[in-house]
UniProtKB/TrEMBL annotation, chain A:
Belongs to the ABC transporter superfamily. Spermidine/putrescine importer (TC 3.A.1.11.1) family. PROSITE patterns: ABC_TRANSPORTER_1 (PS00211), ABC_TRANSPORTER_2 (PS50893). The gene is potA. It comes from the Bacteria. GO terms for cellular component: ATP-binding cassette (ABC) transporter complex. Transmembrane segments: none annotated. This is Spermidine/putrescine import ATP-binding protein PotA.
Automatic annotation (TrEMBL), chain B:
One of its GO terms (cellular component) is plasma membrane. Belongs to the binding-protein-dependent transport system permease family. CysTW subfamily. GO terms for biological process: transmembrane transport. This is ABC transporter permease subunit. The keyword Aminoacyl-tRNA synthetase does not apply. Its main location: membrane. It is a multi-pass membrane protein.
Length: 373, 299
C-alpha cells in the first residue's frame, strides 16, 4: 500500500451524535410518527425495530432528508438538520433496493459522492479503492451492477455510502433481499465494519433476530411511537410492555385478574388456572385489575404424566404438536381451551409425543406481568 | 392444432402475423419502389416501364429545385426533432417525477387526445389559427405586438410550427416511459450522495432516459422527413417539403420511375442522418466514459 492510500484509509473515524426531539410526521389525515424523542450516541449501532407501518422507515427517511418532519428537530452534533435537503447532510444511506446506478460501474458508483463533494481528482481513486477493499469488492470495480449477485450489490451499496465518510450511516433493511445464509454472513460483516470504522449506524429492520444479533441498542417502535429503547438483553428479558414482550421472541400470554398477596407471592386468577408470581412482578397492579401474564416458551418445563399435587404454577395438558428445531424441541400443548407453547433443549427433551398427557410448570420469577391494553 | 401450426410455420409461429404483414406490406412495396427507380416512363399514358434498367432517373432527380427542397426538408425535420425534444424533456420529467401516479393517466390522455383527431383536421385547424385574419393575428395586433396582419401562413415557419405540434406526442410518450422507469429510488440515492436536483437530472435521469430519447427522435424524425400533409396544408408554394415533390411525381406527373428514384434517395438520406446521429452519440459516450473513468489504485 502506498502512502496516499494509507492516508485515505480508515474512512470516518468519529461517528456523529444524533438527537431527535419531539418529532412528528403527518401524511394528511394519517400520522406516521406521533411524538418521538431519541438520542443516538456517537459511534453507536442502533436498530429501529418494529412491524411494517410502525414508522421506522419514515423516521429513517427524515434523518436522510427525503421527508420533512411536520414538527420537531433533528440535530446532528448539536446542529439542526431537519430542514436541510438530503444533498446537504453529512449522512449517507444504504437503500433497501441498493439503488445502484445501472449505467455506471461499481467504481463509478462509489466515486459518485466524492465527485459531487468536489474531492480532488488524485484522491478519488485511492479512496474508492480503499472503500472497495473494506467491503471486499476490489475484484468487481469495473462490473456493472446488473452483473453482480445480491450480496455483491449490497457490498457495493455499502462502499458507495461509506466512502463519503458520513457522520451517520443509515441502513434501510439492507438484508431483506438476501437469503438466510448470506444474511448471517453480512450481519457479521456489518458488525466488523462498524467496529473497524467507529461510525454511527442507524439500522432499520423488522427482523428481531437481526436486531438482537447486531445492535448496541434497539428502539422498538409500534404505531408511530417508541415502545422501548434498550440493549438486546434488556429488551428480551425485561420488556417494557406487552407489545415489546410479544414482538421480541415468542410468548404465551394469559389474561388474568390480580388476586391476593400471600408472603412473597401474588396470585393471578387466569381462565384455566391460577398463576403465582413474585410480589414485585405485580406490584404496579391493584387487586381485581385485569393484566396480561407473559411466559416465554423456554421457561416452561414439560414432564410426562399429571402434575404432582401441591406444585405451584403447574397445569395438566395434552401434547397436540411436536416439532424438532435442531437445538430445541418445541411442543404445542392444549391446556383447557387454549394452547401453550413450550421449548425444551433437545438434549433434555422428555419422551412425550402427540396425544400424551403432560404436566407443564414454570418458576414464578419467570412470569412477566403487563397492564391490559 | 398447435402442433400442426408449429409444423407448418416452424417455432416462430407466434410471430407469423407480424412478419407476414411486414413482408407483404413493407418489404414487397419497398422492393418494388427500388425496382421501379431503375426503370423509365416510356410514354404519356404509362407510369413506368422496366424493360431497360439504368441509373438515369437518379441523375434526372438531382435538379436544383429538388436539392433545395431536400435541404429545406432536412432543416425542418432536424429542427423539428430538436424542438420536440426540448419541449418534451421538461414535460416528461414533470409528468414522471413531480405528478402523483394517480393523476398521470389523465394527463397522458390529454397529451394523446389530439392524436385521436384526424391528422388533416387538426392541421387545418392550424391554418385557421395562423391565417392573416385569424384570431392569433387579430389578438397580436390588438396587443400592439404586430403592426400589420400576421404573414406566417404558407411559409416554412408555419410548416415548422405545424410539424412540431403534430409529432410532439410521439416524443413525449417514450421519454415519459424512460424517465418513469428510472425510478424515484435512484434519484434519492443521488441526492443522498450529495448531488443537487440539476446534477441528478443530468447525471442520473437523462442518461437513463437515453433509450427513450433515441426512440422518440426516431419516431419523430423519420415520419417527419417524409411528411407531406402538414407542408401541403400550411406551407403552400413557399413551404414545400420533399414528400410533396415525390407525391407529385406519382400522382400528377404519373412518372413512377422518377418518383421511385426520389423516394429511394429520401430513404437513403434519412437512414444516413440517423446513422450519423447514432455515431456522434456513440462517440460522445465513449469520450465521457474515458473522462469519468475512476483511476483505481492497487486493484
Amino acid at each position: 500500500m502506498t502512502t496516499t492510500s494509507q492516508q485515505a484509509a480508515s474512512p470516518a473515524t468519529t461517528g456523529g451524535r444524533l438527537t431527535i426531539r419531539e418529532i412528528r410526521k403527518d401524511y394528511g389525515e394519517h400520522t406516521a410518527i406521533k411524538r418521538l424523542d431519541l438520542e443516538v450516541r456517537a459511534g453507536e449501532f442502533l436498530s429501529l425495530l418494529g412491524p411494517s407501518g410502525c414508522g421506522k422507515t419514515t423516521l429513517l427517511r427524515m434523518i436522510a432528508g427525503f421527508e420533512e418532519p411536520t414538527s420537531g428537530a433533528i440535530e446532528l452534533d448539536g446542529e439542526d438538520i431537519a430542514m436541510l435537503p438530503p444533498y446537504k447532510r453529512p449522512v449517507n444511506t444504504v437503500f433497501q433496493s441498493y439503488a445502484l446506478f445501472p449505467h455506471m460501474s461499481v467504481a463509478e458508483n462509489v466515486a459518485y459522492g466524492l465527485k459531487r463533494a468536489k474531492v480532488a481528482k488524485k484522491d478519488i481513486g485511492p479512496r474508492v479503492s480503499e472503500a472497495l477493499r473494506l467491503v471486499r469488492m476490489e475484484g468487481f470495480a469495473e462490473r456493472r451492477p446488473d452483473m453482480l449477485s445480491g450480496g455483491q450489490r449490497q457490498r457495493a451499496a455499502l462502499a458507495r455510502a461509506l466512502v463519503n465518510r458520513p457522520r451517520v450511516l443509515l441502513l434501510d433493511e439492507p438484508m431483506s433481499a438476501l437469503d438466510r445464509k448470506l444474511r448471517e454472513e453480512m450481519q457479521l460483516e456489518l458488525i466488523r465494519l462498524h467496529t473497524d470504522i467507529g461510525l454511527t449506524f442507524v439500522f432499520v429492520t423488522h427482523d428481531q433476530e437481526e436486531a438482537l444479533a447486531m445492535s448496541d441498542r434497539i428502539v422498538v417502535m409500534n404505531d408511530g411511537v417508541v415502545q422501548q429503547i434498550g440493549e438486546a438483553e434488556e429488551i428480551y428479558q425485561a420488556p417494557a410492555n406487552a407489545f415489546v414482550a410479544g414482538f421480541i421472541g415468542k410468548q404465551n400470554f394469559v389474561a388474568a385478574t390480580v388476586g391476593n398477596t400471600d408472603g412473597d407471592t401474588t396470585v393471578l386468577h387466569g381462565e384455566t388456572a391460577d398463576l403465582e408470581v413474585p410480589v414485585a412482578a405485580a406490584r404496579d397492579f391493584a387487586h381485581g385489575i385485569t393484566v396480561q401474564a407473559a411466559i416465554r416458551p423456554e421457561v416452561v418445563a414439560v414432564a410426562p404424566g399429571a402434575p404432582a399435587g401441591g406444585t405451584r404454577n403447574a397445569v395438566a395438558g395434552t401434547v397436540v404438536g411436536e416439532s424438532f428445531l435442531g437445538d430445541v424441541v418445541q411442543y404445542l400443548v392444549r391446556v383447557g381451551d387454549r394452547e401453550v407453547l413450550a421449548r425444551v433443549p433437545a438434549v433434555a427433551a422428555p419422551e412425550v409425543h402427540e396425544g400424551d398427557a403432560v404436566a407443564l410448570s414454570w418458576a414464578p420469577e419467570a412470569v412477566q406481568v403487563f397492564g391490559d391494553e | 392444432m398447435r402442433r400442426f401450426a408449429a409444423k407448418i410455420l416452424g417455432p416462430g409461429a407466434l410471430a407469423f402475423p407480424t412478419w407476414a404483414y411486414a413482408v407483404f406490406f413493407f418489404v414487397v412495396p419497398v422492393a418494388l419502389v427500388l425496382f421501379y427507380s431503375f426503370g423509365y416512363k416510356p410514354d404519356e399514358f404509362t407510369t413506368v416501364a422496366t424493360d431497360r434498367l439504368s441509373l438515369e432517373r437518379y441523375a434526372e432527380s438531382m435538379t436544383g429545385s429538388f436539392l433545395a427542397t431536400f435541404a429545406a426538408t432536412l432543416r425542418i425535420s432536424v429542427l423539428g426533432t430538436i424542438l420536440c425534444l426540448l419541449i418534451s424533456v421538461p414535460f416528461a420529467y414533470w409528468l414522471a417525477v413531480k405528478v402523483p401516479a394517480n393523476r398521470r393517466g389523465v394527463l397522458l390522455a390529454i397529451v394523446m387526445v389530439p392524436f385521436w383527431t384526424n391528422f388533416l383536421v387538426r392541421t387545418l385547424g392550424w391554418q385557421i389559427i395562423l391565417s392573416p385574419d385569424g384570431f392569433l393575428s387579430d389578438g397580436l395586433q390588438q396587443l400592439g405586438l404586430l403592426s400589420g396582419p400576421l404573414n406566417i401562413l404558407y411559409t416554412r415557419a408555419a410548416v415548422q410550427i405545424g410539424v412540431v405540434y403534430n409529432y410532439l406526442p410521439l416524443m413525449i410518450l417514450p421519454l415519459f416511459v424512460a424517465m418513469d422507469s428510472a425510478g424515484q429510488a435512484l434519484r434519492e440515492a443521488s441526492y443522498d450522495l450529495g448531488a443537487g436536483r440539476l446534477s441528478t437530472f443530468f447525471r442520473i435521469t437523462m442518461p437513463l432516459a437515453m433509450p427513450g430519447v433515441a426512440s422518440g427522435c426516431l419516431l419523430v424524425f423519420i415520419p417527419l422527413t417524409g411528411d407531406y400533409v402538414t407542408a401541403t396544408v400550411l406551407g403552400g408554394a413557399n413551404g414545400s417539403m420533399i414528400g410533396q415533390i415525390i407525391a407529385n411525381q406519382f400522382n400528377t406527373a404519373q412518372n413512377w420511375a422518377l418518383g421511385a428514384a426520389m423516394a429511394v434517395v429520401l430513404i437513403l438520406v434519412t437512414l444516413a442522418v440517423v446513422a450519423v446521429a447514432a455515431a456522434v452519440l456513440w462517440l460522445g459516450r465513449l469520450i465521457t466514459a474515458r473522462l469519468t473513468r475512476v483511476q483505481l489504485e492497487g486493484i
